Amino acid sequence: MRIALILLFLLNFLFADSDHHKEKDHYYSKDLTYLSLTKTQEEEVKNILKDYRKELKRYRHFKKEQIEKKQELFLENTYDANKLEQINQTINQEETRIERELMQHLHDILSSEQKKKFTHYIQEWEIE
Angle at which helices 81-109 and 39-75 pack, to 10 degrees? Predict the structure, then answer.
């Protein structure tokens, strides 16, 4: 009987949820339904995300080109670490620009309460 109680006690901790996880029930990555957007906001967000997807597609092509430059750099007879740093900075600047524009657009249309909810998932919107 003691073993059963100890086992149940341990299982309770294993399956316990914190309050933070309750917000994520039935949540899909980059899904904004938890924000309860108005119809106007939905249309604006739809356009923002459409542009964002185009930017991401362009960025992926850009990043692929930068990786090819890194490969060419590595194959040269003399290695230039400064060129590698420049390539990496260029990639990071582009990522930052895209993220900055997205966040600015979303910030402009969300209410204070929606912004607060959005911050719980902001990491999902970082470019990988």
Answer: 180
Q: Give the phi and the psi of residue 23 in degrees, each rounded to 5.
A: -65, -25
What does pTM read for this prediction?
0.71
Lookup: tokens for 116: 């607060």
Look at the block and give the residue holding tokens 């299982």: 11
How many CA atoms, within 13 angstroms, populate the side-chain half-sphere of residue 100? 6
d(CA 5, CA 29): 38
pLDDT in tens, 52-65: 999 999 999 999 99
- pLDDT grade, residue 127 (50/70/90)? confident
As a whole number of angstroms, the distance between CA 42 and CA 35 comes to 10
CB 23 within 8 A of CB 34: yes
Domain ranges for the chain: 50-128
